[in-house]
Amino acid sequence: MSAALAGAAAACCAVALASRARAYCDAGWEAGGRFEMTFLLVLMVPGCAVLALLTAFLSRRLPLWARPVPTLLVLVSVVLVFFATQGTLDGYPGDLERCGPDNVPPWWPGWLPA
Fold first, then answer.
1. Of 22, 49, 64, 110, which has the maximum CB count within 10 A?
2. DSSP assignment of 2-68, as one string?
């Protein structure tokens, strides 16, 4: 049950992070972009919850201390991939003074993929 809650929380964080990046860079944050993020939230929450449950089920043979690790790695990967694909719209006309042409906000760490 806690895996499903972690999955739902990761989905909310992924959509919030991508939405914040779009709003900051003013790229894809018009009415259609906001609707897209809302629609993706509705799909991501149950999807990530099921993914987390599946990962937890598959890792049930690991030692007790290591069971959450695969689930957390999968969820972190989902958040990073979602941000890279939905939060940074490369080539989308945004605010070039705040973000570059790749629409990666300056507050995003450079060592993480975007």
1. 22
2. HHHHHHHHHHHHHHHHHHHHHHHHTSS-SHHHHHHHHHHHHHHHHHHHHHHHHHHHHTTTS-GGGTH
Contact by Cβ (8 Å): 14, 79: yes
For 91-114, what is each residue's pLDDT tens digit?
A: 788 777 888 788 888 888 887 777
Place of tokens 């999968």: 74
Report how far residue 62's alpha carbon sits from residue 37's, in angstroms, rounded to the nearest whole number: 36
pLDDT in tens, 57-89: 999 999 999 999 999 999 999 999 999 888 888
Q: Is 26 exposed, middle or buried (0-12, 13-18, 19+ CB in 10 A)?
A: middle
The answer to whether the beta carbons of residues 5 and 51 sit under 8 Å apart is no
Which residue in 32, 33, 26 sits closest to 100, CA to CA?
26
